Amino acid sequence: MSTRIYTKEVMEHFRNPHNFGKIKNPDGIGRVGNIICGDVMYIYIKVGRNNKKREIIKDIKFETFGCVAALATSSVITDLAQGKTLDQAMMIGKSRITKSLGGLPPIKLHCSVLAVDALSEAIYDYLSKNKKQIPGDLKLKHDRIQKELNIIEKRYQEYTNLEKEILNNVPKNKKKK
Ligand code: FES
Fold first, then answer.
1. What is the pLDDT along the chain (177 residues), one digit of tens a residue?
2. Does residue 177 lie within any of the structural domains?
3. How many Cα neighbours within 13 Å face the side chain of 114?
4. Which H or E element spans position 98?
5. How many separate domains does the chain show?
6. Where in the sequence numbering do the catalytic residues fall?
């Protein structure tokens, strides 16, 4: 893989991702899909309190089924969010992620949005499950992300149906090859 496309920070996170995996009994799960490429990312969080009794991200892990940039951005967002209050974590944006990675190729900038969305969704999931107040902009973001996930799932279903149809129409002797 060419390191000329990506910075050394991106390649380092890609080769040795931080906080990769699942959390047992997470307090919140964020699942998002990228409308452009169809890649999928999960972020799991455990919520605790700091010494000022404010809710913080006590533990965070991720699983990403996507490209080099998606893996690096999810790894870096877990580093940035760890120990932060929920409000601070919600403010981590794509420019902060890209800066921490020393930049991303313009064609890969949408991958950093996926990481931001996954973290927002994990926080949304925690707040809604615990019947806590959800900030208006987080709710709007959640609605947009769900809409995009539905589009991806619909496209995937259409593709699977089309593939089945093609396979059913292949003459039997060709199927064997
Ligand atoms: Fe799909 Fe990067 S190309 S997330």
1. 445 899 999 999 999 999 999 999 999 999 998 777 778 899 999 999 999 999 999 999 999 998 999 999 999 999 999 999 999 999 999 999 999 999 999 988 888 889 999 999 999 999 999 999 999 999 999 999 999 888 877 877 888 888 888 888 887 766 555
2. no
3. 31
4. helix 94-100
5. 1
6. 37, 111
Nearest in space to 119 (alpha carbons), one of 33, 28, 17:
28
For the whole model, what pTM was predicted? 0.86
- Does the residue 165 lie in any domain? yes
45 lines ligand 1 (CB under 6 A): no
- E strand map for 50-172: 55-65
For 15, the domain range is 8-170
Q: Is 5 in the pocket of ligand 1 (CB under 6 A)?
A: no
Place of tokens 């064609």: 107
- For residue 98 and ligand 1, the question of a CB distance below 6 A is answered with no
27 C-alpha vs ligand 1 centroid, how far in Å?
A: 26
CATH of the domain at 117: 3.90.1010.10
Is residue 22 in a domain?
yes
Query: Does residue 111 sit within a domain?
Result: yes
- 116 phi and psi, to 5 degrees? -65, -45
What's the CA-to-centroid distance between 110 and ligand 1, angstroms?
7
